């Protein structure tokens, strides 16, 4: 094992088991690019502020750039014995530059370095996730545009409630995704603060220029307190919380798709390339993708709980507990990305059965509220109209018919307000068209909702 950076203070080498236990290179190596770019900005600033010689700053920048290129071309492999990515890069630089490499860590600690690296990494990942989610939202609105007249039942308690359109239903998810985008943007903004220069926890005696590093790295501003700068992980918990809520939405959507493609509903059919078969039952076509998304939601919630619990008892400032943040947040990020990447094309290619949706809406007295509203519009108080309609539904059930097919004299037996126009009033299409309150299912209302979402997602990203 190579000698530790801190060997001077110690009389013994580290136990191999402790070395492995302590090491984070297995999972923080993925931040190599951010680590190197952060170090390049730091070295540039050190040179500009005459904290190290200009020529040394230049060779450090050159050396770091070469290390980055060598990692990307596969020439340089990560050393599994290194403690973490920060130590690995610094050791490699020193191997290549000798004494000059040893100057890089002036006015810096791994505590502010890791805070910088994780913020840079999360900014990149959040941007990627937002782009994927924007695409998914566009898929949802594109399908909605084709189905503003596709009547389907809506449900409460999974019992048929009132008629809506498939577009109206889909736009509910588009609104959830818009809020998810807003939450992600919010988490991004909170992540976009530059912590370098906090050093171990108490800043530094060197005349550093934190604003310069901030500008070089494209952060919006610097962090304001050096203790907080190295011990804050709120931004990471906020991201994981936004991801958990996003997963909850994907999971609810998945659950509905699972129901919709069952033989009992058959509202949609998944494309063969996004479904799976059974090893024993030849007739099966299973919605595994959506079930996995529903299942993976638990993982992301677990990651959030890991992060919250990890932070709750740590005194200021840095503690090694915080090394545990990476596996949890990377797992949440990778899971969400995988889910978005699979869900989007699955949704875009599914077939919608307008016929089956309409047939389901035509059953179950879904127009009963509209029947009561008919009486109310002709002057009857709502509670009386509600009661009469309840009796009508009861009559229909006894006679084995629907409100549309019940004879006018049956209606008239309960109220002489009823007339022949009741049938037009309770037709499925009329029920949908009449619901034109803002946010409602009438086609032009849903078209407004689509325009609203399209405008707002473009404003966010
Ligand atoms: N690998 C560490 C982490 O991920 C880097 C910071 C180490 N700092 C320290 N004082 N041991 O948190």
CATH class of the largest domain: Mainly Alpha
CATH-assigned homologous superfamily of the largest domain: Fumarase/aspartase (Central domain)
β-sheet strand percentage: under 5%
Number of strands: 6
Terminal CA distance: 47 Å
Strand order of the largest sheet: 1-2
At CATH's second level, what is the architecture of the largest domain? Up-down Bundle
Q: What is the helix content? A: 55-70%
Q: How many domains would you count in the coordinates? A: 3
Secondary structure blueprint with pairings:
Blueprint: H1 16-22, H2 25-28, H3 32-48, H4 54-73, H5 85-97, H6 110-146, E1 151-156, E2 159-165, H7 166-191, E3 193-194, H8 210-217, E4 221-222, H9 226-231, H10 234-260, E5 268-269, H11 288-311, H12 325-349, E6 351-352, H13 354-361, H14 368-377, H15 382-399, H16 408-414, H17 422-425, H18 428-433, H19 443-460
Parallel strand pairs: 3-4
Antiparallel strand pairs: 1-2, 5-6
Helix pairs in contact: 3-4, 3-6, 3-8, 4-5, 6-7, 6-12, 6-19, 7-10, 7-19, 10-11, 10-12, 11-12, 14-15
This protein binds arginine.
